[in-house]
Write a structure and sequence with these properties.
The complex is a heterodimer of chains A (about 400) and B (about 210).
Chain A: H1 4-13, E1 26-30, E2 42-47, E3 50-56, H2 65-70, H3 77-81, H4 90-104, H5 110-139, H6 142-163, E4 172-173, E5 176-177, H7 184-209, H8 212-218, H9 226-232, H10 237-240, H11 248-251, E6 264-265, H12 272-296, E7 321-328, E8 333-340, E9 348-352, H13 355-358, H14 361-367, H15 374-381, H16 386-390
Antiparallel strand pairs in A: 1-2, 2-3, 4-5, 7-8, 8-9
Chain B: E1 8-9, H1 11-14, E2 54-56, H2 66-70, E3 76-83, E4 86-87, E5 92-96, H3 105-109, E6 115-117, H4 129-132, E7 136-137, H5 142-151, E8 159-165, E9 170-175, E10 180-188
Antiparallel strand pairs in B: 2-6, 3-4, 3-5, 3-10, 5-7, 8-9, 9-10
Classes of the chains: A mainly alpha (about 400), B alpha+beta (about 210).
The structure holds iron/sulfur cluster (SF4) (2 copies).
Pfam families (chain A): Complex1_49kDa
Keywords (chain A): NAD, Translocase, Transport
Family (chain A): Belongs to the complex I 49 kDa subunit family.
């Protein structure tokens, strides 16, 4: 136990006073119950309506995945680890599976690769729609938020048909996927949905991305420069908004991405608006990728690997070794480091969520000098995802 | 970063122009039909293979505990059961829906195909102890669940009430179609309980489960 005096001392070292000694500034607590922070909290030291100092205070969602994953058999961990990323739960499944496959030396069948690419892109589209919803709600444009939620629902229905669950579809496993595509009907439905959502994108543009008020609220706030972003390890759309053309799908290709044609959006400003616009453009590109994939069509073959070792799943052993795998999620570069000691349980699984970079230190520095009304806007423009900070 | 060998979108495509007038175009949905589903009056169509509650064919289950070993939430506990005075030779899994994540790994791993799943997913109770017993059950036969689903197609849990007598260890399932199904729990775990070791020459307990459908 830490004594109270120690706590006070520690708080003071961080520039915070528990006793109202500081008469010039006041402290605000953006807690987990606040609509804008989502299970995350920031302590703000305010001078008038400007932030003087911000201290991110994560950890409300710390569930100890690293320890829990050590205690479960290899396959079972999928059902656990996907809970690290709530908006797109396929990404942790995928990286864990990719890392295990690398240790095993497995080559995933072509059909499984196609399905996985489709699932990842569907997850990206639904995560961007989810983010649009969050942004619209925080900007106060509730209409656009409700539209985004309604269109995301269509993708959820497709996921339900494919995997059997709406959000946590425990679907990708080391060596393939768990179920085959339900048939041509599903492919047709997906095609219709993609077309439908694509036809609705101009609506979002009209309401938020081309709205004068959005521009005034987001332009020039939370500006990040290239050097700072690279130093802090920011990835994904937040990095691309500072003018760095880096995308894991291109820099370190996986699955079918080398065969697909898509553009990577890059802007130079590095402010909240450019981050939002980049996400908007990626949503369009992801729909375009899905169209291409559907045109390709699923190759025939098995949807998971055939290996005699898979007969006894609880005792399934992975040879000793380690592997790192990463994919591009909507928040950035999502990586998993898996170590095996040859047993039937992983020795260690470390998941590196992208928000850990932009959710704590970057956020703290971007918030300095911001007005209080900009705080939620900066938060949502970074697409902060608390579960992958806390894990 | 120095050499870019992939397509970078031109800035002009990404950037947008602010407008005062365009947001008003959002009003065009004012007179369209809303996409809402009025839940108590309209039904949603859920996927055919939606991962819901479990079903268990008691005759097929060999008590191998594979499902218990694979379960990520450790929701499965092997249970020794006595139906109509006859002890089952093998333990059966008891599933605790307080912990279950509905991953259905247990279904995939079951070597005999005894454990299955149905698309029922609704189970709500209040806070009372006796109601919470509903969350902890040995799944019943899939045909029985199908029968109940035909009568009540609302994706609810097929059992409406579970009673557990602490002294006699007797469990009573009140199925939704009015049937009552009773059995006794002799013990838990992979090892057979001392009181009811299955005798090697015990007769087949198949007919004991006629009641269950
Ligand atoms: S349900 Fe299947 S896996 Fe579980 S004990 Fe019975 S036979 Fe084994
Ligand atoms: S569905 Fe998953 S969590 Fe539930 S009992 Fe089966 S293995 Fe355990």
């Amino acid at each position: 136990m830490v004594s109270q005096s120690e706590l006070i001392k520690e708080a003071r070292e961080n520039g915070m006073d528990l006793l109202p000694l500081d008469k010039d500034t006041y402290e605000l607590f953006f807690g987990p119950q606040h609509m804008a922070t989502e299970n995350f909290s920031i302590i703000l030291k305010m001078d008038g309506h400007r932030v003087v100092k911000a201290i991110a205070n994560p950890g409300f969602l710390h569930r100890g995945f690293e320890k829990l994953a050590e205690l479960r058999p290899w396959y079972t961990n999928i059902a656990l680890l996907l809970r690290i990323c709530v908006p797109e739960p396929d990404v942790p499944e995928m990286i864990y599976s990719m890392a295990v496959e690398e240790i095993m030396g497995w080559e995933v069948p072509e059909r499984a690769q196609w399905i996985r690419t489709v699932v990842l892109e569907m997850a990206r589209v639904s995560a961007y729609l989810f983010w649009t919803m969050g942004m619209a709600f925080k900007l106060g444009v509730y209409t656009a938020g409700q539209w985004a939620a309604a269109y995301r629902e269509r993708f959820m229905a497709l996921f339900e048909e494919l995997t059997g669950a709406r959000v946590y579809h425990i679907y990708t496993i080391p060596g393939g996927v768990r179920r085959d595509i339900p048939g041509d009907k599903w492919l047709r439905q997906l095609k219709d949905t993609v077309e439908y959502v694509k036809s609705k994108l101009p609506d979002f543009d009209h309401l938020i991305f081309e709205n004068y008020i959005t521009f005034r609220r987001m332009e020039g706030i939370g500006v990040m420069d290239k050097k700072f972003a690279l130093e802090e390890g920011v990835t994904g759309p937040n990095l691309r908004a500072t003018g760095v053309p880096y995308d894991v799908r291109r820099a370190d290709p996986y699955l079918l991405y080398p065969e697909l044609d898509f553009e990577v959006p890059v802007l130079k400003e590095g402010d909240a608006l450019s981050r939002a616009l980049i996400r908007r453009y990626e949503l369009e590109q992801d729909l375009y990728i899905l169209e291409q994939l559907l045109e390709m069509g699923p190759p025939s073959g098995p949807y998971k690997i055939q290996d005699p070792r898979l007969k006894n799943l609880p005792r399934f052993k992975v040879p000793a070794g380690d592997a790192f795998a990463h994919v591009e999620s909507t928040k950035g570069d999502f990586g998993a480091y898996v170590v095996s000691d040859g047993g039937n349980k992983p020795y260690r699984v470390q998941i590196r969520g992208p928000s850990i970079a932009h959710g704590i230190r970057v956020l703290e520095q971007l918030l300095v000098g911001a007005r209080i009304a900009d705080v939620p806007v900066i938060l949502v423009s970074l697409d902060n995802c608390p579960p992958d900070i806390d894990r | 970063m120095e050499e870019i060998d992939f397509k970078v979108a031109p800035e002009s495509k990404i950037k947008k122009k602010p407008s005062y007038i365009k947001p008003w175009l959002g009003l065009k949905y004012l007179f369209k039909k809303p996409v809402t589903i009025k839940i108590p009056y309209e039904k949603t169509q859920i996927a055919e293979k939606y991962r819901g509650f479990h079903s268990l064919d008691w005759k097929k289950c060999i008590g191998c505990n594979f499902c218990g070993q694979i379960c990520p939430a450790r929701a499965i506990e092997m249970t020794w059961i006595e139906v109509n005075g006859k002890a089952e030779k093998r333990p059966h899994p008891k599933i605790d829906y307080g912990r279950c994540t509905f991953c259905q790994f247990c279904v995939d791993v079951c070597p005999t195909g005894a454990l299955g799943f149905v698309s029922n997913y609704m189970l709500t109770t209040e806070w009372r102890e006796e109601e919470l017993l509903l969350y902890d059950w040995v799944p019943i036969h899939p045909d029985k669940i199908k029968e109940i689903n035909e009568k009540y197609p609302d994706y609810r849990f097929p059992v409406s009430k579970i009673e557990f007598n602490k002294e006699t260890k007797e469990v009573t399932y009140y199925l939704r179609d009015g049937e009552v199904f009773k059995f006794r729990i002799l013990g838990y775990g992979v090892r057979p309980p001392a009181a009811a070791k299955p005798k090697p020459a015990a007769p087949k307990t198949g007919e004991a489960k006629k009641e269950q459908g």
